[in-house]
Amino acid sequence: QVQVVESGGGLVQAGGSLRLSCAASGRTFSTYTMGWFRQAPGKEREFVAAINWSGGTTYYADSVKGRFTISRDNGKNKVYLQMNSLKAVDTAVYYCAADRRPIGTVRTPAEYSYWGQGTQVTVSS
């Protein structure tokens, strides 16, 4: 089992950058697939990015490809989401999620077992 806590959200102008962090507990963190999701007001939670246990495989939503980068540091039990060239449409609560299954088998929010409380990202235009 793993617990995750997000941090790093805030208010930024369009075109700016933010880096979100996700701190995870547990000695088996390095075996988990980690994902970032987001949920804007009135919308469903949507996939943003995912990274496999080693960091060697990453997936991105088309809407953030080329602007966002997911990475992990297994020595520090952390996952990061570097967000550049932010747009107003990126405004949402961002969630970190974890699951033991391989990255290719967990694609939707329902398939991730462990979730953080979320961190608000607001991009002003």
Task: Describe, in plain words, how this protein is organized in 3D.
The chain is mainly beta and 125 residues long. The protein has no helices and eleven strands. It has strands at residues 4-7, 10-13, 18-24, 33-39, 46-51, 58-60, 68-73, 78-83, 92-99, 114-115, 119-124. It is globular and about 40 Å long. The model has no long low-confidence stretch (mean pLDDT 96).
List its traits.
four-stranded antiparallel sheet, mainly beta, 125 residues, seven-stranded mixed sheet, single chain, 47% strand
Secondary-structure topology with pairs:
Blueprint: E1 4-7, E2 10-13, E3 18-24, E4 33-39, E5 46-51, E6 58-60, E7 68-73, E8 78-83, E9 92-99, E10 114-115, E11 119-124
Parallel strand pairs: 2-11
Antiparallel strand pairs: 1-3, 3-8, 4-5, 4-9, 5-6, 7-8, 9-10, 9-11
| Major beta-sheet overview | 7 strands, mixed
Q: What oligomeric assembly is this protein in?
A: single chain
Shape call: globular
The end-to-end span amounts to 40 Å
Total helical segments = 0
What is the alpha-carbon Rg in Å?
13 Å
Structural class: mainly beta
**How helical, in percent, are the residues?**
under 10%
